[in-house]
Design a protein that fits this description.
Blueprint lengths: L1 H26 L5 E5 L6 H17 L3 E5 L6 H9 L6 E6 H9 L10 E10 L2 E5 L8 H10 L5 E4 L5 H13 L4 E4 L4 H9 L5 E4 L1 H9 L3 E6 L25 E8 L4 H15 L2 H9 L3 E5 L1 H21 L6
Parallel strand pairs: 1-2, 1-3, 6-7, 6-8
Antiparallel strand pairs: 3-10, 4-10, 4-11, 5-8, 5-9
Length: 324
């Protein structure tokens, strides 16, 4: 009798846990959600965040407010997200910089394990771009020749510290045997692109959001992009690989929440953003930014983050990059 009574109460407890979980999922959200973009307006993360929020908001059922917390090459935003309450009311854009900064930046207060991924939002190739008609609007081969003839004279703009674009700069320097002047713009493309157009940098490395719209508009020229093959959207842009340089460093972007966020919330958000990111408007918007819309579920997104971590740790070891 005691055994049967125990099983009866165990069954009740199990049922209650399921009901509680479902009720929690149904009760969420009850208010607006803050979407942290750790870079300034016009940056890649900011642009993706606003597109994803716009098309996913109706499936979430509450307003999604994008908040820019720029600083430290994205580290300020990552730190704020990691420290926020894990209740689903604070989400954030996450990129490769959030993976590698704990290895290469002193004083950061977060690690990869500080976050859970909701979904992947997009993928972009990193490009080396210049002002159209400017003194460095040449082929990559000619640019490398100029850099060798006058080392430490070409100013190379990058956005976030140790983002794929910053890695691309470091790897190209090693591969080509040149030395560039690194010019960081912590606010991302919103700062680096105007700087290039205004003559404050000579060449820039950046994701598609930096250069694609202005390349199409005839204001920028792209000397090379990362990737195994040319992007079919931009068939006239060669790859670094075509010049013999192993700069295969894609930029990937995810939606993240603080570690400890309930699974019911994670699954709810994943489904809402899956629907939003499946809409044609989202895909077209990403395409216009030079980014491929690429949604993934939470488990596959975490695997994608792990894969990128392994890729960039190999580069850190190969080039003996040290924390700064």
């Amino acid at each position: 009798m005691g055994s049967k009574l125990f099983l009866f109460f165990l069954s009740l407890a199990f049922s209650a846990s399921i009901i509680t979980g479902n009720v929690f999922a149904l009760d969420y959200p009850t208010r607006e959600i803050e979407f942290i973009a750790g870079f300034g307006p016009g940056s890649t993360i900011d642009s993706i965040a606003r597109l994803a929020a716009k098309f996913s908001e109706k499936y979430v059922g509450k307003p999604i407010i994008v908040v820019n917390r720029a600083g430290g090459g994205g580290s300020r935003g990552y730190a704020a997200l990691a420290a926020s309450k894990p209740d689903g009311y604070t989400i954030g854009g996450f990129a490769v910089s959030g993976i590698v900064q704990p290895y290469l930046m002193k004083g950061v207060t977060f690690q990869k394990k500080s976050f859970r991924m909701i979904s992947q939002l997009g993928v972009s190739e990193t490009g080396l771009y210049v002002k159209k008609g400017g003194p460095y609007d040449v082929t990559l081969k000619e640019l490398i020749k100029k850099a060798k003839e006058k080392p430490d004279t070409i100013r190379a703009g990058v956005g976030a510290t140790w983002s794929p674009e910053d890695f691309a700069r470091a790897v190209l320097e090693e591969e080509a045997g040149v030395k560039l002047i690194r010019v960081p713009f912590p606010g991302g493309g919103g700062e680096s692109v105007p700087a290039l157009l205004g003559g404050h940098s000579d060449i820039n490395f950046g994701a598609g959001t930096h250069w694609a719209p202005l390349y199409v508009g005839g204001k920028l020229n792209v000397l090379a992009t990362s990737g195994e093959q040319r992007d079919p959207r931009f068939p006239n842009i060669p790859t670094f690989k075509e010049y013999g340089y192993d700069v295969n460093l894609p930029a990937k972007y995810w939606l993240a929440v603080p570690a400890g966020t309930p699974e019911a919330v994670i699954n709810f958000l994943a489904e809402a953003f899956r629907k939003g990111c499946s809409e044609k408007g989202y895909k077209d918007g990403m395409d216009n930014l030079g980014i491929s819309a690429a949604w993934q579920n939470p488990a596959d997104s975490m695997k994608s983050v792990d894969g990128m971590e392994n890729l960039f740790l190999k580069i850190i070891k190969k080039y003996d990059l040290k924390p700064q």
